[in-house]
Amino acid sequence: MERGSLQARHERLAQLVPVTMSVSSARDRLLPVVPALGSLFPDAGLTRGSIIGCQGPAAVSIALAAVAGASAAGSWLAVVGLPTLGLCAAREVGVALERLVMVADTTDLGEAVWANMLAALIDGFDLVLVRGAAQLRSGSARRLQARLQARGGVLVVVGDPGQFACDLIISAHAGRWEGLGDGTGRLVQRRLTVSASGRRMARARQAEVWLPGPQGGIEAASGPAVSGPAGTGPAGTGPAGTAAVAFRWTG
Q1: Could you tell me where the Low complexity compositional bias lies (predicted)?
Q2: CATH assignment of 30-168, given 3.40.50.970, 3.10.180.10, 3.30.230.10, 3.40.50.300?
């Protein structure tokens, strides 16, 4: 009786092994994203081995927000080709600066050096954020993409992805700054409509976010947007206000 009971337990455990392995594998192949962007991703996270393209006038801000959750959770981030990246803005959106490495000046690098540099970063970092990928030839892009999938990293490409085949494209539209009144106040937060499309998605997804929000990070937005010209604050926003924000937040 006891032996039969033990055998039954072994059989039940054997049935559970594939289930727990699949759940564990699904969890291990994902890196976390901030809650405000979770609904844009097919698995509510960054899939290891994938390439994310970020486009539009707020591409840099969206790229930083996309990697912020994984960075805060312990992943190392390499940034390539963004010499004017605002470190204060990166920190406010959630990027851990103590796990950030920047390769700022890549203007004089040839295609072969560029490819070798990206290969080294893919080998050593969970997250690689790059601008300037369009200079890579198709053969180099294919080899790097295969390397990325083998290593389990995530490549985030700002702007033109060139020969890379993106698994997900994230774009930001209709940016509106808020905070200015009639001659008073200051720009406080920017509302963006963010959309995502990709090969694994039947249709595009969309989310409304504050980026930056009142505290400088990214937050989900609700309610109607405040009227005003797209990309600015309310009517009457002047050049001085815009310059002040550009100093604090790039992208």
Answers
A1: 220-229
A2: 3.40.50.300
